Backbone:
């Protein structure tokens, strides 16, 4: 085998290894970001639920919406980044609360 063919094979192997390494790195970063986003929305949901329970304990009824919590209990909402789904069931039944990251922030 001549020198140039051997160098080309070595170059091809190094390039292939580099590409595989980059793919692994980028997929790991993407996986981490998705996992962190899930943890972040879970934590925010817990906070909103705690505020709703605090309202129930104080007033004897769950709030009608998250804006009530914002206005009367000081809950800070980041509506630029998150979607807050708040479905009241009844004054004495805990509401269904879900938090989602808006597209483009994922």
Residues:
């Amino acid at each position: 085998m001549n020198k140039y063919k051997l160098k080309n094979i070595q170059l091809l192997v190094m390039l292939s290894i580099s590409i595989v390494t980059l793919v692994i790195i980028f997929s790991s970063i993407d996986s981490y970001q998705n996992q962190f986003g899930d943890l972040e929305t879970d934590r925010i949901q817990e906070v909103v639920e705690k505020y709703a329970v605090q309202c129930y304990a104080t007033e004897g009824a769950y709030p009608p919406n998250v804006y009530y919590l914002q206005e009367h209990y000081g809950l800070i909402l980041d509506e630029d980044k998150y979607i807050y789904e708040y479905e009241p069931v009844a004054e004495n039944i805990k509401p269904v609360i879900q938090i989602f990251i808006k597209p483009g922030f994922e």
